[in-house]
Structure formats: C-alpha cells, structure tokens
Design goal:
Number of strands: 0
Distance between the termini: 39 Å
Number of helices: 3
Strand content: under 5%
Helix content: 55-70%
Structural class: mainly alpha
C-alpha cells in the first residue's frame, strides 16, 4: 500500500474527535484515525450509492402504468437550475 503525505487542517470539533479516537485506543495515532474514519465514510457512501442505484433500477423496471406522476418537468429541475445560476454568479 502506498502512503501519500498531506498536510491538512481541521476544525476544532474534527480535531477533538480524532484525538478522542486515539485516546480511546481505537487508532494508534491521528493519521491512522483520519485514514480509518475516511475509509469508513467511503464504505458508507458506497453502500448508500448501491442502495440508491438498486432502488432506481427497481423503479425504472416498473410498468409505465405504475409510475407516479412527478409534475411538470420545470418543477423537477427548478432546484438544479437555481443551483447552476448561483454557481454562474460566483464566477
């Protein structure tokens, strides 16, 4: 396994949490605590993505007569358009 060195900054809360994990003996040092907790977060994200994809596949496999109406397409995409407009204003 390759190790990448990187300097990072933490909020007080994140630093305290990592220090507590080390002090509790869950990890041997801060670096291991950060790496370990990131690995756990990745596993959880992957699990959530798999569940989402499975649910999406399930719904897409339903016959069209079982689909729920979602309203106007503009209603469905309004949030995304507002987000894109806000991003465009920042640049």
């Amino acid at each position: 396994m390759t190790v990448q060195k990187q300097s990072v900054s933490f909020t007080d809360a994140a630093y305290t949490f990592a220090r507590e994990l080390v002090e509790a003996g869950e990890y041997p040092n801060m670096s291991a605590a950060v790496s370990g907790e990131l690995a756990k977060a990745k596993v959880e994200r992957d699990r959530e993505r798999s569940l989402f994809e499975a649910e999406l596949e399930r719904r897409l496999s339903l016959p069209l007569d079982q689909w729920e109406p979602v309203g106007e397409a503009s209603d469905v995409t309004a949030g995304a358009r507002a987000h894109l407009a806000a991003m465009a204003q920042k640049t």
